[in-house]
Write a structure and sequence with these properties.
The structure holds 2 protein chains of 2 kinds.
Chain A: H1 10-34, H2 38-42, H3 55-61, H4 78-110, H5 116-126, H6 131-145, H7 152-176, H8 180-188, H9 193-204, H10 206-222, H11 225-230, H12 238-244, H13 253-275
Helix pairs in contact in A: 1-13, 3-13, 4-7, 4-10, 5-7, 7-10, 8-9, 10-13
Chain B: E1 4-13, E2 16-26, E3 31-35, H1 42-50, E4 57-62, E5 65-66, E6 77-80, H2 92-102, H3 107-121, H4 136-149, E7 154-158, H5 166-182, E8 186-191, H6 194-200, E9 203-208, E10 211-216, H7 218-223, H8 228-233, E11 240-248, E12 253-257, E13 260-263, H9 267-271, E14 279-284, E15 289-291, E16 301-311, E17 315-322, E18 325-332, E19 342-347, E20 353-356
Parallel strand pairs in B: 3-8, 3-9, 6-7, 7-8
Antiparallel strand pairs in B: 1-2, 1-4, 4-5, 9-10, 11-12, 11-14, 12-13, 14-20, 15-19, 16-17, 16-19, 17-18
Helix pairs in contact in B: 2-3, 2-4, 3-4
Classes of the chains: A mainly alpha, B alpha+beta.
């Protein structure tokens, strides 16, 4: 037997430690800050020892809590509303992107039509355009032509358009792997094109849909640039709200960090749920391998 | 059951001619086997019948109903695929009932039909499992079950046994043959295996290079092949083909070549009369050879030197050479055969087939 536990170079451990610190450090800071009162945050003395409190979270969520926290004098609905906005925008845009994307991908893979290759390539090229470039024209058109600024529909449309190319592209690779014989068998069994798609193809590419949905949801959830330009007071999403709460008069770090923590939770839950669908070997047993 | 008729059906992929116009006619309730080497167009023919490939021109008739423009579901067919094509996300019962569920058949009726077919195929205990948990043979059964549940008039099989191991294939072949007897259905079966074709088919259609070479019963094809291809394809071990020259020395017609000279039956004189030259191909089945008795006249015997002797139990296959030709000989395993020795054989003249060298048609 050769030596399995070879001693590693200490520099290797140092590197790993540094990387871990870089990854966890900010989250740790955010968490601890969100659990402190502003007095603790600002004082230099209590860097390590402090009395954890949920007050900041209560402030953020005062609008949705079933009781009124006693320390909150005026309940500011902004953060609660922003969380709701973010959820609505991210979930709906993810849903629409997936529905449109899987059908488009299926058509691109299975149907022969003129310009198929070009279209397939172009969808990916769209992805190369940075959102910053789109910002000004989108703002102009949405605001002055269609008056969709400050509406859910407006921002959802932008997110769908932004994410669709990638979703189509990723789903194409999943659909290609569905054995064509399965679709033929379904056709022989009497399924029409829609039944073939919804009853046979879609269940098999579920892992692809899950991967695409995680991706889309996260982009829509985190997007700042366009949301900042398009949305107004009542429809703002969380990232925009956080930045907007940094004013020249007051920066409530505790509340901001608490919002940040809350912002991180939905994507984690979503990813956790969706990734359960990502299992390999979906087509096992379908055809002779 | 409808009578299936191909009426000058043609298939092209773009500019490439895959199947030149051809006619086929399957009788009601017949088990038809399309057989040929890969790329011969047999699968394409089946897929056109199934509605998975478009017919470029011509028409396929079910009795007097043209079907070549119909969707697969409107053709009253069921199909078993070569690689099973089971829906991996459904359990076996769901797989088998898929077609019925699409037709909105009442659930009780579906359950009854599935149970009946499952019992017939011996897969009742598998109904709750997913295809991924089954072995190849079980999957094949399920694929058949899925077709049987349908109650269609015509069953199509696309090389259904080619993915199974040899032993299982033999077993399933027997079961298919039994099924053929109990089910009053049209069956069209595609295979590249001539043994399957001969054991299963009422009518065998031999195809090569997109052309129908010959159709008929297994016996027809074996005894009176239309051309060299059919003669070589049907029968195992395959027929020996020897380049020969016809020599007419007054009394008897003989086929001669380096190292052999076979006297041909008198009827052959008439049949070979139209030939442009004396060059022909002589075809001899391996089983037509017999060890030459000691008193065999020198003219009728052929000396073969044994290269390999394959003992198969009752039979022994000898791979021998005669000049440049390699010749297969199938004999009863009585005698002992030594590698490297040369032995004399005789051939029954009636069993020798003569093919035109140019057209490769049997004379």
């Amino acid at each position: 037997m050769s030596q399995t536990h070879e001693r590693q170079n200490p520099a290797f451990y140092a590197l790993v430690f540094a990387l871990v610190m870089m990854a966890i450090g900010p989250i740790y800071l955010m968490l601890t800050t969100s659990l402190r009162l502003n007095v603790d945050i600002m004082s230099d003395a209590s860097a390590l020892f402090f009395m954890p409190t949920l007050r900041n979270y209560e402030t953020v969520l005062c609008d949705v809590l079933w009781y009124t926290p006693e320390h909150v004098g005026y309940c500011d609905p902004t953060f609660g509303r922003a969380l709701g906005n973010s959820l609505i925008v991210a979930l709906i845009s993810t849903g629409i992107t997936l529905i449109v994307g899987c059908m488009a991908a299926y058509a691109l893979v299975r149907f022969r039509f003129m310009g198929r290759g070009t279209l397939s390539m172009t969808t990916l090229m769209m992805r190369m355009v940075p959102p910053a470039v789109l910002l000004v024209p989108v703002f102009g058109i949405w605001t002055f032509q269609y008056h969709m600024d400050g509406t859910y529909a407006g921002i959802i449309l932008v997110y769908v358009a932004m994410n669709l190319p990638f979703v189509i592209w990723i789903l194409q690779s999943f659909i290609v792997q569905v054995p064509i014989q399965l679709e033929e068998a379904a056709r022989i069994d009497g399924a029409n094109a829609f039944q073939v798609f919804f009853l046979v193809v879609l269940p098999i590419i579920k892992p692809g849909l899950a991967a695409a949905s995680i991706f889309t949801f996260r982009i829509a959830w985190n997007e700042f640039l366009i949301a900042n330009a398009l949305l107004d007071r009542s429809t703002r999403t969380v990232p925009v709200t956080i930045v907007n709460s940094l004013t020249e008069y007051d920066i409530d770090w505790g509340v901001i960090m608490a919002t940040g923590m809350l912002l991180a939770i939905p994507p984690i839950i979503f990813t956790f749920v969706a990734s359960k669908q990502i299992i390999t070997g979906m087509t096992a047993g379908a055809v002779k391998g | 059951m409808p009578r299936i008729r191909f009426d000058s059906v043609e298939k092209r992929f773009g500019q490439t001619m895959v199947l030149p116009p051809f006619d086929l006619d399957f009788d009601d309730g017949e088990f038809t086997v399309l057989v040929g080497p890969s790329g011969c167009g047999k699968s394409t023919t089946l897929r056109m019948l199934a509605g998975l490939e478009e017919v470029t021109s011509g028409e396929i008739w079910f009795d007097d109903r043209p079907i070549s423009r119909l969707e697969p579901k409107d053709r009253d067919i069921a199909m078993v695929f070569q690689d099973y094509a089971l829906y991996p996300h459904m359990n076996i019962a769901k797989n088998m009932s898929f077609a019925l569920r699409l037709q909105k058949v009442p659930k009780a009726e579906i359950d009854a039909k599935v149970a009946k077919v499952a019992e017939m195929l011996g897969i009742e205990q598998l109904l709750g499992r997913k295809p991924g948990e089954l072995s190849g043979g079980q999957r094949q059964r399920v694929a058949m079950g899925r077709a049987l549940v349908r109650d269609a008039s015509t069953f199509l099989f696309d090389e259904p046994l080619s993915n199974l191991d040899a032993k299982l294939r033999g077993k399933m072949r027997t079961e298919l043959a039994e099924m053929r007897n109990t089910l009053d259905k049209n069956m069209v079966y595609v295979t590249h295996d001539q043994v399957e074709a001969m054991t299963l088919g009422d009518r065998i259609v031999v195809m090569a290079n997109g052309l129908v070479q010959q159709q008929g019963s297994a016996e027809d094809l074996f005894k009176t092949p239309a051309n060299k291809f059919v003669a070589g394809f049907i029968g195992s071990p395959t027929m020996n083909f020897l380049d020969a020259t016809l020599v007419d020395d007054g009394g008897t017609l003989t086929a001669q070549g380096p190292g052999f000279s076979f006297a041909l039956p008198p009827s052959m004189r008439e049949r070979t009369a139209g030939l442009s030259g004396p060059e022909v191909i002589a075809g001899i089945r391996p089983a037509s050879f017999a060890l030459a008795p000691d008193d065999a006249p020198a003219g009728s015997r052929i000396d073969l030197s044994i290269k390999v002797s394959e003992y198969l139990g009752t039979q022994t296959i000898l791979v021998t050479t005669c000049g440049d030709h390699e010749i297969l000989v199938e004999l009863d395993s009585g005698a002992r055969f030594q590698r490297g020795t040369t032995m004399g054989f005789v051939v029954d003249p009636e069993t020798i087939m003569i093919f035109d060298k140019k057209t490769e048609l049997r004379l």
